[in-house]
Sequence to fold (361 residues):
Amino acid sequence: MPGRRLREPDPDGRKRGADTRTARRYPVPMRILVTGSTGHLGEALVRTLAASGHDVVGLDRLPSPHTNVVGSIVDRDVVAQAMRGVQAVLHAATLHKPHVATHARQDFIDANVSGTLNLLEEAVVAGVSSFVFTSTTSAFGAALSPPPGAPAAWITEDVVPVPKNIYGATKTAAEDLCQVFHRRHRLPCVVLRTSRFFPEADDNAERRDAYADANLKLNEFLYRRVELEDVVDAHACALQRAPAIGFDRIIVSATTPFAPTDLEDLAREPHVALARAVPEAAAAYADLGWKPPARIDRVYVNARAREVLGWRPRHDFRSVLERMRAGGDWRSPLARLVGAKGYHAERFAHGPYPVESSPAP
Fold:
């Protein structure tokens, strides 16, 4: 059984990075469990919620100033301990896509499926009012890649996932568990399928070689990236609205400047669609010495998040472009404060990410 222990979080560290909008969403302080609190999103959630006056329980298998229950969500006793007195749950703990090459499939089942099941079971026992599960747009899997010659895919919640690895399969399985617990126990569950928000270098070697890192991040705000600050606010919106929603799966990504009429051009000549949608982009790219993406194969659509959650993302391609053109950082202040966490303690022969030569047993 994984070890566990209690430690007091650093109150000063957790008060930095407050979001007044989060405080307005919850004028009455709540006791909120955040899983994966040592991780990138988890730390951002703990910092923001604690600074807004909430009693935050941080749970992670690794210690940190933002984690006060050290243990694994795979251990039901640890989960039960962390859930005491909790009114809402933000479940961000997970094994990620970069772990596919380094972890066994059973590890993904344990962490992403069994761990989620433990949390749902104990959330029912505790009678929590909101359960928010951090999922991923990677859950769409093969549905994100149209065949050669086809237009780019317009990805809404209506697209049926086609998981292509154990990561996607376990995330969709965990989403389904959330739906089961809502149907059977009336547990309010909102699944947030977040697009990429990690600050680390791109996980694709060809893209890392072809573009400067900041250039890549900017490009992704066109169709597949969201800022950490906005992800945190989406979680706050979901916590507030989960009781009224009941259950839903919702995409969380930066607002794209594109429309469905751009999909043909995006697949073949994205610069044409970009000039039409954001006329000032060409001059800005020239000033920065950067280049737009050579091809865009999918566009994530956040219309449902804005409608159902009342979410208002602050960062999009235009705002990030203006910031970077003025010499600023593409990251929000909260993202800079949290920094990069990485996925592995070591580096690999091909760079920061391992190469999956064959599936792990």
Q: What stands out?
A: The mean pLDDT is 89.
